[in-house]
Amino acid sequence: MGKDTKFRASGIAASQVLTALLVVFMTVLITLLPALCPTPFPPSPPRLFPLGDNPLAPDTAYAASETPKRNVLLLNSYHAGYRWSDDIIDGVRSVLLRPGNGNIDLHVEEMDTQRVTDPEYQDKLFEVYRQKFRQRPVDLVLCADDNAFTFMQKHVQALFPGVPVVFCGVNYLDDRCLTDCGLFTGVVEDYDLKATIETALRLRPQTKQIYWINDRSTTGRAIEKKMEETIPFFNDRIRFEALQDKTMPELLQTVQSLPDDSLVLFLIFNQDAAGRFFAYDESVSMIAEKSRVPLFGAWDFSLGHGIVGGMLTGGFSQGEAAAKLALRVLQGEKPSDIPVVREGVNRYMFDDTQLRRFGIDPVRLPAGSVIINQSYTDKKQILLLQSYDSGMDWTANMEAGIRAVFNDTDRYTLYLDYMDAKRNISPEYMHKTVPLFIEKYKNKHFDAVIVADDVAYHFALTYRKQLFADTPVVFCGVNGFEPADLAGQVNMTGVVEKVDFQQTIEMALRLHPRTERIVIVNDWSDTGIANRRQLEAILPDFGERVHFEFIGDVNMAEVQEKVAHLSSDSLVLLVTFNQDKSHSVFSYEESAELIARASSAPVYGCWDFYLGHGIVGGMVTSGYTQGETAAKLALRALNGERLEGVPVIRESPNRYMFDHRQLQRWQIDAARLPAGSVIVNKPESFYEKNQSIVFGASVLFAFLLYIIGTLQINIRRRRKAEETLRVFATIDELTGLFNRRSGMQFLQKHMEEAKRCRKELTVCFVDVNDLKRINDTFGHDEGDRLIKTVADLLQKSLRDSDVICRLGGDEFLLILPDCDLARAQKIWERVEESRRSINRIGLMPYAINFSHGFACYDPLEGLSPDELIKRADMEMYETKRALKAERALLP
């Protein structure tokens, strides 16, 4: 008999004995039920925590190379904050600052020539740069876009004699302009208008007229020239009309009345005929919102802001390609020997939101198209963006309240994210974190967004048009709410966290009538500042009754010292103290315990997370009710109601709550508490109420309890051992995925189901590239980290119905039920996009690569699971050989 069978048999026998004993036990205990069942205090909402580690916290650091420093100047035509050039700079950094590419110091100069167009301005720039770089060596100049390129052509010998120049983002390059520039090479911004128009006409075959929108900037004039070269390809079937030299109101009025058999080609529109400037996303969003017909485009920074899509050019890929050329130059190649890159940096990209808006079937898109905002489920997608971290009781309680409303997992998917602003309050942290959240959500569609607490609330107010557009937004837990915040906001409402300091103070004074001084403990966080404003507004109401003293910009030890020597006529009001003067960080619970334990006077507070950690109580605000109320507002939006018609809930659902232990410590009579108060931690004194019953029952049941306890311990041990054996038999210890044995069982099951139900089935064999090299270079711990990262990447990219297992080593098997090869390819595109995203942000000190091969199951062939896997394995090796051959051809 095997170990599993033995454990099960033992467990069954023990359970039978336990059942018999419990029958006797319960028969006697039935008389005790009234005494054993006092009215319970409503349980606290459960704390809920997300699974998984933060993938953006790499555990390795890159040490600067000992090679000589190379100084690279990036001359940007435009200004910081302009999406196109920001993407170029990010692309450059992703290559030049990658570990292993040498000791490169990248310096960026913003020319700001889009907002300042005066010719004399560039002459001034020349003088500034001549002074600035006269004594600063530059090994290579990167120039982004036409103005920087033209500037360098004119001034390179005067500013940087003999220094090579690599350009990118140049719109219309005439090869003759490089004849006398042997130190120049680069990447042309070769946007493919012809491919975009051809695709638009395939998707909208009824089109007879195309209106194209463009401005008169330097870039706009170059685009106009390209457009004039493209139009003749379509003159025999399409009429073109330029919408130039118009003000924005005129343009909006025009697109509102376009005929159904037309479409719009949006090129660039940063300045209208009246001289008004627009951000890259502002103009296209305004036009797309008013347009009756689809907008197509040429640049990826317009995607997600109203265009359907097209063959798009991206700033990131421009900068990335230019930086790769720069590396070659820094490694010794002559720029004149490096051909200008004109192709290979564009790709078909589309927005599923706009496809659905205009009834365009994604199946008709070009093969290999990237689709953003695509959803693979009918469930409503809800984002909960928390200001703080998941370990806070307040955050967890708020999340629990929201989950209580969206508890139907068949209808709703709740995405959780945390800005962690309580433990990281420095401006530098938020400055670096906000771009991460912008990048994370810019191409993600949600049906509703809930933002919790002030930091997430202000993030949503600032970046909503860019990220969430008309998506319903509900806020909760906000202290510093002003009605003016919502001016210009649509489809947004929420619930304010109104802390009732006044009733808490008045109640405390009634319980302690001899109080002459109240010490208010409050830090200088954003929440603390908002709370202090609220307190300062009500303190005059207490007149001469009591003296108030604020302490906050001190160390925790000083707070403890202060409250430890308070006189008997004093009280403490704990507002918030999460970070002291020395930047030591404390959780709400920790700060309450440290302060209350040291205090010689009672401590009161206004939040439920302080209860049980030292405060007496107060008029308490609950995170659970905040989250629950906000979720109910979001539910109204999901049911079709516009939120601008729903008033903000300004009165928080607060209630009086107290801690029984603290009432006893400070000898406060519970009878003096406000009517309806809730008392937590109140002991249930069963012995005092039922002393004779306890005495008799203890003799009668002592032996039974001993046996029951012994059996229970034995059963738990056996079940734990059995569970451990089961886990080791099915789960891969390193990745947490199914192991080979379990994977083969799932494959056999799905093959049988596919044969029985005549469904399609595809498997994908995945092999991680370069694992041996990474083990040899970085060690086996890093190799294990790579395997776990790939496992997590694959798992997050699959559908809920798919199965993934680790076959062993660096090999994985994806089982894709009810999936043909075409759909499998789309799933793999998500995998590849995730891989590229991880590589772009540089999570690893190397690029993650893997090879894959598909095999489709045909029941008529009668393949076994091993044969099906072998077929996918063979295709994978063909892919890997092709990749190696391609690498061998690279210089």
The global form is: globular
Report the portion of residues in β strands: 15-25%
> What proportion of the residues is helical, as a percent range?
40-55%
For the biggest sheet, the summary is:
5 strands, parallel
* Cα distance spanning the termini: 63 Å
Number of helices: 27
Q: What is the assigned CATH homologous superfamily of the largest domain?
A: Reverse transcriptase/Diguanylate cyclase domain
CATH first level of the largest domain: Alpha Beta
Question: Would you tell me the structural class of the helices and strands?
Answer: alpha/beta
CATH topology of the largest domain: Alpha-Beta Plaits
**Strand segment tally:** 28
Backbone CA Rg: 34 Å
Question: Structurally, how many domains make up the residues?
Answer: 6
Whole-number mean pLDDT: 85
Contiguous low-pLDDT stretches (5 residues minimum) are 1-13, 28-65
Keywords: Membrane, Transmembrane, Transmembrane helix
Protein name: Diguanylate cyclase
GO biological process, one term: negative regulation of bacterial-type flagellum-dependent cell motility
GO cellular component, one term: plasma membrane
Walk me through this protein's architecture.
The chain has 891 residues and is of the alpha/beta class. The protein has 6 domains: 3-38 and 689-730; 70-188, Response regulator (Rossmann fold); 193-313 and 347-367, Rossmann fold, CATH 3.40.50; 380-493, Response regulator (Rossmann fold), CATH 3.40.50; 501-620 and 653-680, Response regulator (Rossmann fold, 3-Layer(aba) Sandwich); 740-889, Reverse transcriptase/Diguanylate cyclase domain (Alpha-Beta Plaits, 2-Layer Sandwich), CATH 3.30.70.270. It has 27 helices and 28 strands. It has a 5-stranded parallel sheet, sandwiched between helices. The protein starts with a helix and ends with a helix. This is Diguanylate cyclase. Keywords: Membrane, Transmembrane, Transmembrane helix. InterPro entries: ABC_transpt-TYRBP-like, Diguanylate_Cyclase, GGDEF_dom, Nucleotide_cyclase, Rev_trsase/Diguanyl_cyclase. The chain crosses the membrane at residues 12-36, 693-711.
